Amino acid sequence: MKKIFLVVCVLQSIIIAAQKKTDPTTFAKSILPDDLKRHLYIVASKEMEGRETATPGQKKAAAYIESQFQSLGLIPGNNGSYQMKYPVYQDSLLYTSVQVNEKTFELDKDFSINIGQSNSSIYRFSEVVFVGAGIVDSTRDDYKGIDVRGKVVLLLAGQNQPQQGQRGGFGNQFARIDAAQKNGAVAVLVISPGFPRQQKTSPKGNMYLNSFQKVVRLNQFQVSENIARAIMGDDYDKAKAGSFQPKTYTANAMLSFTKTTTDLQSSNVLGVLEGTDLKDEYVFITAHYDHLGKRNDSTIYYGADDDGSGTVSVLEMAEAFVKAKQAGKGPRRSIVFMTVSGEEKGLWGSQYYSNNPIFPLEKTTVDLNIDMIGRTDSSRHAGDSLNYVYVVGDDKVSSDLKPISEGINKKYTKLELDYKFNDPNDRNRIYFRSDHYNFASKGVPIIFYYDGMLGADYHRPTDTPDKINYALMAKRAQLVFYTAWEMANRDAMLKRDIKLDVPPRGF
User: Fold this and answer.
1) Which whole-number Å values give the CA distances from 309 to 184, 272, 304, 366, in the listed order?
2) Rounded Cα gap, residues 84 and 443, in angstroms
3) How many whole angstroms separate alpha carbon 61 and alpha carbon 43?
4) pTM score, whole prediction
5) Angle of helix 33-43 versus helix 470-489 axis, rounded to 10
6) d(CA 378, CA 385)
7) In this structure, are residues 413 and 479 in contact, taking their beta carbons and an 8 Å threshold?
8) How far apart, in whole angstroms, are the C-alpha atoms of residue 260 and residue 120?
9) What HEC string does 358-425 produce?
10) pLDDT-derived band at 4, boundaries 50, 70, 90
11) Spatial distance between the Cα atoms of 110 and 233, rounded to a whole number of angstroms
């Protein structure tokens, strides 16, 4: 028995030594421009409809990525499934109306309502309370001496509002709605300019993640001066001039709003290549595969660079690592290839994963995130514009990141590593704008690879696969591959010795 144990130990040592000495160049060079192009013309095709989160186009893209992971023989990353689904909700307007003294007013002609921020209800009020601007702060209280509990309040938008530039300032509409709710009102009518509306209310609201809220807001109707006069009569013009005090009006006001909520669902796609002696530790390679979808049901936002380029690079790196394993040179740590959706909505997919990790975050040594590596930055005038990549985040969380990254690049790819977006004063706040952030915020070291294409075709229908520099894209993907190889095979996980300073994200 002891002899068998010794033989196993010796064999394992030989395997580990071989993994450390293996030259990954052969496998890195299997990441080819033509293969990237083939994948990208599928991922960023008309059939994928712009891949907006929780739409049929996004689900087609997820199915394609899953089929590639499956054909490579990767292990499904979510307990037997390649997809990690998460809920996405969207509200649809069924009916809404405003009536005052039996006169019915039309949506968009005389009132509007935010579908996502409103709740199905029918209210019939016999009184409407005018509260001026509805301001409550250290200098005034427009609700003083007025009982609005269980009532509808009417207020003027933009009247005598100090612009404090904060959520608590009454230049912010939410603050005035909060004040109405705290005083017990159950609905708010906000007299607003711009009626009739030129842009009609969409029958569908914005998508959102959380259907259960800590605080349910009261319904807020933006209403025209016609509705204000129907309630206040000639008093409205005095109030508009700022010379009228709060008052309760006798008026029969019926406010109706009905919507339905659909759980659309979206998903991240995960494939795993199991490691050897360190298989319970993980290297993540990530990209987001969603984009902006369609507008007016006809204009497609193809998202070839953003982030079709990262998505197909993940596919090619997965294939390269599989080839290494088939040659007996597989990684010591397990590698998780994860493409996420929801990035364009606010990093939803990576947020869901980081809050519900399948693999322990404390055992995740690094996330190498790729978001746009197929184009060039037209504003970059120094250095070689055809041989660079922006490297972001290698100076945060772990002091191991930069020396490994620079050493690998110097040895293999010799790209110009540009650290422009590591600047704490970067006005674009790039570090906080892609999916690596949700790993970093949990203490996982990250490196983000990026081409800087913020102008030209960024978030436009013209971000198409014919504009990609496939040779440069392949070289950048090879850098990520070499870096992942090193991090998957080194003895120790990356240190976590730099505290991440996280200012308010503000985007």
Assistant:
1) 52, 20, 6, 21
2) 22
3) 6
4) 0.89
5) 100
6) 8
7) yes
8) 8
9) CCCHHHEEEEEEECCCCCCCCCCCCCCCCCEEEEECCCCCCCCHHHHHHHHHHHHHCCEEECHHHCCC
10) very low
11) 16
